Amino acid sequence: MTKDIFDCIRQSHSIRNFKSEQIPDATLTRILEAGNMAPSAGNLQPWYFYVVQDVSVKEKIAAAAFDQEQINEAPTVIVIAADPARSNELYGERGAQLYCIQDTAAAAQNILLGAEGLGVAACWVGAFNETKVEEAIKAPPRLRAVAIICLGYSNEQPKEYKERLRLAEVAKFIH
After folding, report:
1. Which secondary-structure segment (H or E) carries 45?
2. Could you give the count of Cα atoms lying within 13 Å of 161 in the half-sphere of its Cβ?
3. H helix intervals, 13-172
4. Which of 88, 133, 134, 138 has its CA 20 to 30 A from that of 148?
C-alpha cells in the first residue's frame, strides 16, 4: 500500500533511530526505481546508487560522515554518486559542475518520497568527507559522492507536523 504523494511530502521527516529489521528486497528495489525515474538534464541519469548493507562498510561511511550514528543504525544505506563526466559530454562544464548535482539531488528526493510512500523511514545525510565515502564504497575516480540516505523502519515516536515558512515568504508570482 502506498500513500498519496502530497501525504508523503507532508509527513516525511528525518529518522535517526532505526529498528534492525531489514527492508525486503522487493521494497528496496521499488525505492531505487523511484530514484532512477528522477528527471535529469538531457535524460543522462548521471547517478549511481551504492546500496550498502555490509556493517564494516557502513562503519567506514559513518566515520567519513563525522560519526553520524544513524548510518550505523540503518539496515540499508544508499550512497548516491554523480558522474560529472557524463553530464559534461552534452553540457560541458556547467553540466559537470551543476546539472549532475541537480540531477542527483532529484534522484535522492525521489528515493526519500518512494521510501515514505512504502512505509520506510529515511534520513538524508549531507555532511561527510566525499573522498573517504568514495573510498569506502570503492567508487571509480570519475564519481563524486553527493548524498547518503539511511533507510530502515523507524524506531522513533511519530513527530508532529513541522513548521514551515509561509508560501508568501518564499514565493513570488511574476505575471
Report:
1. none
2. 7
3. 25-36, 55-64, 69-73, 84-94, 100-117, 130-136, 167-170
4. 88
Cell of 75: 539496515
Distance CA 162, CA 175 (A): 31
Q: How far is CA 30 from CA 34, 53, 109, 117, 171, in A?
A: 6, 17, 14, 10, 33
Pairing of strands 144-152, 121-125: antiparallel
From CA 121, how far away is CA 136, in angstroms rounded?
24
Secondary structure letter of residue 96 according to DSSP: I
Q: Which of 23, 69, 31 is closest to 49 using CA atoms?
A: 31
